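To: structure subgroup
Subject: Chain for Friday's discussion

All,

I'm putting the inputs and outputs inline so they're searchable in the archive.
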Amino acid sequence: MTALLCALLLAAVDPYDQSKVPIEVDTHDPKLAKIVLVAGTPSHPPGAHEYLATQAVLKGLLDQNPGLHVTIVRDSWPKNLEILKGARTIVWYTDGAKNHPLLQPDKLQVIQSYIDKGTGFVALHYALNMTKELGEKLLPWVGGVFDPDISGGTGAIKWTPTIKSLPTHPITRGVVPFTINDEWYFNMRFVPGMKGITPILTGAPPEELRKNEDTRKHPGRAEVLAWAYQRPNGGRSFSITTPHSHEDWADESFRRLVTNGILWTAKVEVPRKGAKVALDPADLKKNLDDKRPKPGTTPPAAAAAKKP
């Protein structure tokens, strides 16, 4: 009876209930390294770009490691800007391109003020996809950006990079080479001479994905897919060109890599064996954005099929 009751309770969990995700909970303990996770507004089909669910997963991972205070901001911007004060690093997972929140000058100026003070910065996937104008402004923050003129890998085109080896770096502690089939951006625009850049993940995409003139100049080249960036002012950044799919977090090495990257940007010592990143698989089915079609609307997949 107990097992049956547990099964019924699990079945009753609403995957779209986000009410238990703590939002903008601050700390006044100066001994704790404050990490702010910014989640974007809902977009993309179910299972893709699950911004709030991803940041809830990351909070759960980071909370397993001592000395941190981790707080989540939802809908791409804080309701109370005080939550950013004292942040050791800001983790950005939001829409990009023409919908990038930092296209708004007032928001850009606020985050720029933290970057200027050496605050860490982490950009995940679509947050690296920028207009040419925004890319020029954020390149000094992250060291590399998706340039719409030269970069490749968009359009939910999935491929599996073969990660053959990893560099010796705090971000790779406890990480073993892994494979994930997903939308990985590549041929990014980096700072001149890649000064301050340490490639963390590299892999060569299928040649048929080199669709623009610049990508075709580099047949067979292993592309930089994740990198650490030591900024000239002492600040640190970490970027990775995926995850598009929420299911990527099921991979332990992927979780540890990103968690290590966040710790490194916050200037928190990464454990010798890497960060603790235990995850209950059931957590990947929680806190999802409700992207089910509303009555009288066309599902995203069907709408896309109708386009010429």
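Points worth raising on Friday:
The longest strand covers residues 223-230.
The mean pLDDT is 92.

D.
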